[in-house]
Each structure stands twice: as C-alpha cells, then as structure tokens.
Amino acid sequence: MKFSKYQLLVNKICFICGKKDCPQMKKSKDYKDFLDALEKGDIDKADKIYNMKFSQFSKSFGHEMEKNLEKNRIPPIYQGVPFDSFDLYQHYSYGNGEALNLSSVGLSNKIRPLVNKDKAFGKSNGSIESRFISQYKNEGRTSFSNAYDFTKEASGIADPLWALGTATISGELKDIQTFPGGIARGNIHYNIRDRFTDPFDTFNFTKGEWNPNGTPYIIQDSWIKPVRFSIDKKIKITP
C-alpha cells in the first residue's frame, strides 16, 4: 500500500515515529506550521515544510507508518463532534461507498442556514431562499435546482464545505395558501446532494474522475422550511 502525508494527517499518525497521537509530535512547531498551512489551504507551504523537515523520517519509519495505517483502516464514527473535511476524506478512503446524511455526521446546522445567507456562494444579492420566492412571485415557478460552489463559504481546507466542493441544492414550494391582505404561506422542501469523488483533483487538472485509493459516495440531506411572504397579484403556476 502506498501511503501519503495526507493519509497520515487524517489518521493522526506521527510523521517521525509512525505512532498515533504522538505527544512529541504535537509539541513540534514544524508540525503545527504544517497543519496551519493545510488549514489555510496553502498546499505549497505545507509541501515545503514536509519535504524539508519530515520526508527523511518518513523514509526511515515507513514500515511502522504502514502498520498504523492498516490498523486505522476504518471509516470515521460520529461521536458528537461534526465531521471536518478530513473525516469526509477518511470515509471516502474506508467507507466502501456508503452514502452519508448530513444530519448523521453533525453538519446539518452548518449547511442548512446557507440557503438564508445573503450573498452566499459569491452571489451579488439576496439569498437562495429570497431569490426562489421572487422567482415564484414573478414567474410562478415552484421548484429550482442549482449547483453551488461550497468552497466559497469554506474557512480553510479542514472546513467540510471545502470537501463538498460543488454540490446541488434544490427546492420545491408546496402547500401554498393565500390569505386576505396579500399574504401567502407554504413549505419549501429543500434537498442537497453531492457526490464525493476525485478529491486529489480539486481544480480539475485531469479529465474525468481519478479515485486511486477510495470509493466515491453520496452526501445528502433534506428538510422542510415554512415560509411566509407577501404577494400583490394572482400568481399563475408555471410547470
């Protein structure tokens, strides 16, 4: 099995001794600088630190690292702490393609509010929800489905939004009721879906998909959001 420094990081295995959760490694400034560079998405800096400080040790202790990687060849388990991008990558490596629901890994509270965030995903105005309601009011459309670049909302490479990359959010307005005074109510049935695949080609330098050491899987979630809004005319529903 060929290992990588990123697999070691995911499994919290020391670059020097090959042991998991090494106390000496945690004290290392170089190691902290390496993690900080990864967190900020500065891959060039992380590679430079690794090559200068750790590569020679990795060669010496490679066999021990291989054994530790084999011991930890299991998908991560949600234990009350929301998954980060490395957990999602570990599931790609060891989860055998099993689908994940955002609720089951503690990420619903991070993802769902984005539909109401103003100017989210680099848009110039409004939120996903406000634009959808305007679409209904102006065109009578009761559904939408669009792809969004979640890396625009990520704080760094460890953020699970970075791991999502481009995912699809769809919605359908149902149970519409109108009331005197130009008031309308309904429920938006939201769905988010992403296929976690090709994690080594974030910027699509290669054609197609490349999955040398993992199995692609589906990340999804669905929820219902009650909405209330004003209308000033009779709306003709558009299929």
Automatic annotation (TrEMBL):
Protein name, per record: Uncharacterized protein
